[in-house]
Amino acid sequence: MRKTKSCGVIVMRKQPQIGFLLMLKNPKSKHIYDIPKGHIEFGEDEVSCALRELSEETGIALKDIDLDTNFRYTESYHTRYKRFKGEKVEKTLVIFLGWLKHEVDLKLTEHSGYQWMNWNPPHRIQKKTINPLLAHLEKYLFI
Questions:
Q1: Tens digits of residue pLDDT in 37-60
Q2: φ and ψ of 114, to 5 deg
């Protein structure tokens, strides 16, 4: 079975209240919300991939966040990929934590919008990836 890896950053902010950034996918998409992430490129490490994807999809640069690489969430699951003609693949998701240093103007390139969600667990947003990510993040931050 083909394997693929996707890396990203969950962006948190403290002001005006603690919350996190969600990207709105195309409304026709099966899963509406996502976080900035994308496929790792040849020769790229996970952190570099996550930061590149964050910058490409939102305009948020490393200088705009405090990256906490001690937080590393991973999830593996099987899915079908259009880019591989519907072939079933094993996908590994790797997510790091970034705290926004200051307000930024987002420059979206791959999503139809975004939303800052208030931190109010338990979160029920997207069962397969976002909910478990946020549950893991809650344990990391508050326990």
A1: 999 999 999 999 999 999 999 999
A2: -150, 165
Question: Is there a contact between 58 and 24 (Cβ–Cβ < 8 Å)?
Answer: no
- The domain total for the chain is 1
Q: What are phi and psi of 122, to 5 degrees?
A: -80, 145
3-state secondary structure of 2: strand
CATH number at residue 104: 3.90.79.10
* Residue numbers of the domain that contains 121: 2-142
Q: What is the pTM of this model?
A: 0.90
SS3 annotation, 34-59: ECCEEECCCCCCHHHHHHHHHHHHHC
